[in-house]
Design goal:
single chain, alpha+beta, Heat Shock Protein 90, five-stranded antiparallel sheet, binds adenosine-5'-triphosphate, binds magnesium ion
């Protein structure tokens, strides 16, 4: 039987609250005996996604939602905020050469998430943003 476990968390907009999501992720991974490497990569995905949702969204609700669905093969991470939304097409793709000569060093999170995940989807409107990340665990 496919052993699938789920965790749904409402995170208040509090400094360092992504650590709560990371703790849940860690425990689920241990339960399913997922390798530390894979969980380490998943931690980065969650951290970048949750920080974006808290930092950029101008959330209209006092929380963001984080859902994890995990089995031994794959992890799905869904991070939803209820903020202003954005158009991913307008976000400039960062390039290391340009960043070296620029005072603005940020803007790596989305690129990193795309590269570290196996599927990455952004669904954004003026009612908020939902990112769905799939990460293979084998
Ligand atoms: N959930 C979100 N709601 C609204 N805007 C977002 C959201 N996530 C990302 N953005 C927009 O996309 C831009 C790029 O995000 P990205 O994570 O790549 O870089 P960053 O957060 O600005 O910097 P870094 O992640 O390197 O610290 C953000 O600056 C913001 O304008
Ligand atoms: Mg970011």
């Amino acid at each position: 039987m496919d052993k699938r476990i789920k965790l749904e968390i409402k995170l208040p907009l509090v400094k360092d609250i992504e650590l709560v999501a990371l703790e849940g992720l860690e425990l689920m991974g241990r339960h399913l005996q997922i390798s530390e490497d894979k969980i380490g990569e998943a931690r980065i995905l969650v951290t970048e996604g949750v920080i974006n949702a808290i930092e950029h969204s101008e959330n209209k609700t006092p929380f963001v939602d984080v859902h994890f669905i995990m089995n031994v093969d794959a992890l799905v991470i869904i991070i939803t905020d209820y903020g202003k939304g954005f158009d991913p097409a307008t976000i400039e793709n960062p390039e290391i050469g340009k960043k070296m000569n620029s005072d603005y060093k940020r803007g790596w999170g989305l690129k990193l998430m795309k590269e570290m995940s196996d599927e990455f989807e952004i669904d954004s409107s003026e009612d908020g943003t939902k990112i769905t990340i799939t990460k293979n665990l084998r």
